[in-house]
Amino acid sequence: MPRVYTPKLELICRQCNNIFWRAPSLAAQGGKFCGHACYSAAKSNGRAVACVGCGITVSVSPSQSKIRKYCTAACRRANLKAKIICIVCGVKRAVTPTNIKEGARFCSWVCARKVLNKPRPTVICKECGKVCSVPPSRIKQGMKFCSQSCRSIYTIAHGQGKRTSIELILYAELDHFGIKYLPQHSIREAHTVPDAYIPTTRTVLYADGDYWHRLPKTAERDTRQNLKLAELGYTVHRFWEKDLRTKAREIITAVVG
User: Using an 8 Å Cβ cutoff, are 113 and 120 in contact?
Assistant: First the structure.
């Protein structure tokens, strides 16, 4: 079959306004420029766009001019949320569009109480018995403790936590000597839960893991607890995991006689 010749289409370059010809298939794909030089020149000739955040005019490519709203990513992040000025302290605070619709006027609940004069609801901590004020949202969530620390102590003291293997070794040795003790007994005035408490001698015993209790933060907390218990008249003994696993009876005998 003889080859069918398809005439080229006459087009006008959008950059230099010169006439050029392209095959119909190439023209259908978006023939706008006569060559790569004009395409690059058009690409580099950005269009001016005013930043909706700071108002600075920036040059962007034609394809980005319809969707670009901010001069930089930092400016976009800074203006994603609207800012209000607290009517009490004058502090600026970023809020969501929903907060704007709801009429947000304060930077915090503390400032809101000063104007609205609405006292925060209170709860009685199940661990320490302290009356503390909490946000209304926490009441709906069933908040029962004044702090995470009290929550943890209550959980441990009421047998909701798992007993570790070294704690079981400690209890077995105390049972061997016939010593009456209270496992995981909360001492509220010291804000701690020893692994075992001997009421007759006011002695508290801890079974400390070799890894966790050698960490600086944990070691500092243990020292603070020891000093507090000593001030309250308690005798404190801490046993390392390696000692409980190798010579438990020997070290406990030295303590309880």
Answer: yes
The verdict on 175 and 251 lying in the same domain is: yes
Residue type, 7: P
Task: Name the residue among 256, 195, 190, 185 with its Cα closest to residue 226.
Answer: 190
Helices 165-176 + 241-256 axis angle, to 10: 20
Q: What is the CA radius of gyration of the chain?
A: 37
- Residue 128: predicted pLDDT: 75
- Regarding whether 244 and 181 lie in a shared domain, the answer is yes
Rounded Cα distance between 205 and 229, Å, is: 11
How many structural domains comprise the chain? 5
| pTM (2 d.p.) | 0.47
Residue with tokens 């801490």: 238
Do 143 and 180 reside in the same domain of the chain?
no
Q: How many CB atoms lie within 10 A of CB 204?
A: 25
The verdict on residue 1 lying in a domain is no
pLDDT digits (tens, 9 = 90+) for 65-89: 777 777 777 777 667 667 788 888 8
Query: Residues 99, 181: one domain?
Result: no
CB 154 within 8 A of CB 145: yes
Residues spanned by the domain of 126: 122-153
DSSP codes, 46-98: -EEEE-TTT--EEEE-TTTTTT---SSHHHHHHTSSEEEE-TTT--EEEE-HH
Query: Lowest-pLDDT range, 99-113, 129-143, 160-174?
Result: 129-143
190-207 pLDDT tens trace: 888 888 999 999 999 999
In a domain, 8, yes or no: no
Same domain, 187 and 241: yes
Q: Are 76 and 53 in contact (CB under 8 A)?
A: yes
Residue 224 domain-assigned?
Answer: yes
